[in-house]
Amino acid sequence: MIWLTWRQFRAQTVVAAGALALLAVALAVTGSQLVHLYDTTVATCQAHHDCQIAIGAFESEDTFLQDLIPVVMLVAPALIGIFWGAPLIAHELETGTQRLAWTQSVSRLRWLAVKLSLAGLVSMATAGLLSLMVTWWSSPFDRLGMNRLDPTIFSERGIVPVGYAAFAFALGVTAGMLIRRTVPAMAGTLAVFAAVVAGFALRVRFHLIPPLHLTAPLNMSWVTQTGSFGRPGHSALLVGISPNLPGAWVNSAQVTTAAGRTSLGPALPACGPNFTYSACTAAIARLHLRQVIVYQPGSRFWALQWYETAIYLALALALAGFCVWWVRRRVS
Asked: What does the pLDDT look like over 18-32, one tens digit per residue?
């Protein structure tokens, strides 16, 4: 059964191995150059007093790969679910070839267990190797102060891609078993996977660990907008909030005055349409504004990675368990 499953799955494995090998060569060559460039320019820029120039030149290196990697990390788990998970069972049910296996002294449970374990482990290993390469290649950029908790960067690093791959694969298998048609199962897998991952990143991830709250004086760094407010002749100011929290994931920030008001326009005539920046900032300072910041500190990167990965692996196991129940009770 293992040999048969390998023969059915070897084309996808060969394609994935070839793509990983090509990407590994590209990342190894350019990554070594990036490390050398960082060590010889950025790491020593303070001694030469040219950090701004050195960092700008470093960030302009390998822009093609910088743009390509986020796309690859975004679509790789989805492709695993679409092309590896969805056809795995759907194709056999569509053509009826599963009956031949069941008549060769192979039980339904063994038939499904071998397929799920072999293809699932390959999927997770592929995502793990891809994430390992990308994490290593991106490390010089991360050392520049890149916020790893940024929702887009967070999904490209560490171990969460393994969880995404496992979930996408199990989701594809489940969709194929329920729909029994390969192409519709692939479409359903893509739609559900995209919805779950996007919803989790936007609504759930930030709250996996209770966020911290910080109340501090308003760090006024820029004025984002001025315009009309209330009656003609009154001006409004929308304050740009720039909390000094390097590496943190700031979810929200609210500015209030000492009296609890949030409308600053009438109280700030110095920030009218013809204001000067120094006069406006001085007027804001006299109000003694404070900002309440809700954030996740950068030190929680790995804790959030483990929590999220565990959740996706649990979802994958739940889907696999459902597949086992379904094939024993419902599939004929």
From this structure: 999 999 999 999 999
